[in-house]
Design a protein that fits this description.
Blueprint: H1 6-18, H2 21-28, H3 32-46, E1 51-54, E2 57-60, H4 62-87, E3 92-98, H5 100-103, H6 107-117, E4 121-127, H7 130-138, E5 144-148, E6 156-163, E7 165-169, E8 180-185, H8 190-201, E9 206-212, H9 215-223, E10 229-231, E11 240-242, E12 251-258, H10 264-282, E13 288-289
Parallel strand pairs: 3-4, 3-5, 8-9
Antiparallel strand pairs: 1-2, 5-12, 6-12, 6-13, 7-10, 7-11
Length: 290
């Protein structure tokens, strides 16, 4: 029996979930040529072809499909063991700042996983607007920040880019006019700025139909059919879908940051978040992670 390096399995699974060697390279932070070399090493270890040519790309062979299932179980066990050993005696407090988009979608499952392996750690969750959270992080009040990117920073673990979308109620709008009724968060807000800039640049008439300091208020405005808004896929939910508006919007950038000289438990949680977010972004062709 030949032992398989978990790094090889991690790269292989990044390809299996992302669908291309280029996307796998982004997820594991390697060059495409290094990823190709890793796949060749993995095939040599197994003694079977796991990837097959398909047009300009590659696809999994039947052996590759089987290996992917094993790889997920192996890496899950590897991650759980690592977290458990690191967290068994860990104590203290972690302050995590996040926007509502992530708090409502991805964070609960990841925090549950972390809490199982770090039962003595106290989590202080601060959910709010990106601007305010970033100020608190820069002042040393937050250990881990997951929010809309304000500018490039040396402490960023990953940068996640996701396309902004026009969104509205599934029931449409209650008014039918030439003006675009817009629901926005109070300034400053990157989504608000992007929407208004696009509408003004194209000469499209619009009006601010609703404002709110929170995403819950913005969601209520959209669900009531009085306005459209601009967010990302993370904002989609029952009753809210893509609007018929086709004006092109820029991508939104989010970053995961870890405070300099953060304690080991905070670094462990940040590493878990970074790994899981990379994997989630890799599975969606419209998302790009770096």
């Amino acid at each position: 029996m030949r032992p398989i390096d978990p790094d090889l399995l991690r790269t292989f699974l990044a390809f299996a979930e992302g669908g291309s060697l280029a996307r796998a390279a982004i997820v594991v932070n390697r060059t495409p040529s290094a990823v190709t070399a890793q796949m060749q090493r993995l095939e040599a270890l197994i003694g079977e072809r796991i990837l097959a040519p398909a047009g300009r790309g590659r696809v999994l062979t039947p052996i590759g499909e089987e290996l992917a299932a094993h790889a997920r179980r192996i890496l899950d066990a590897h991650r759980d063991a690592w977290l458990s050993l690191r967290g068994a005696r860990a104590d203290g407090r972690i302050v995590l700042g996040s926007t509502q988009d992530f708090a409502d979608t991805m964070l609960p499952g990841l925090l549950r996983l972390f809490a199982r392996s770090h039962p003595r750690i106290r989590l202080d969750l601060r959910i709010g607007r990106s601007k305010e959270l970033t100020i608190a992080f820069d002042q040393g009040q937050i250990d881990i920040l997951l929010a809309m990117r304000q500018s490039a920073a040396a402490d960023e673990l990953i940068v996640l880019r996701e396309q902004m979308l026009w969104l509205c109620s599934d029931r449409g709008l209650v008014t039918d006019t030439d003006e675009v009724p817009l629901a926005v968060l109070d300034a400053p807000c990157g989504f608000r700025t992007a929407a208004i800039s696009v509408l003004e640049a194209t000469g499209r008439r619009f009006r601010i139909a609703a404002t709110s300091p929170s995403l819950s208020g913005l969601r209520a405005a959209v669900l009531s059919s009085i306005a459209v808004t601009t967010r990302t896929e993370l904002f989609l939910s029952a009753g809210i879908g893509r609007a018929p508006e086709h004006l092109a919007l820029p991508p939104a950038e989010f970053s995961l940051r870890l405070r300099t000289r953060a304690e080991e438990p905070a670094a462990d949680l940040a590493a878990l978040l970074a790994d899981e977010l990379r994997q989630d972004w890799a599975q969606r062709p419209e998302r790009i992670s770096a």
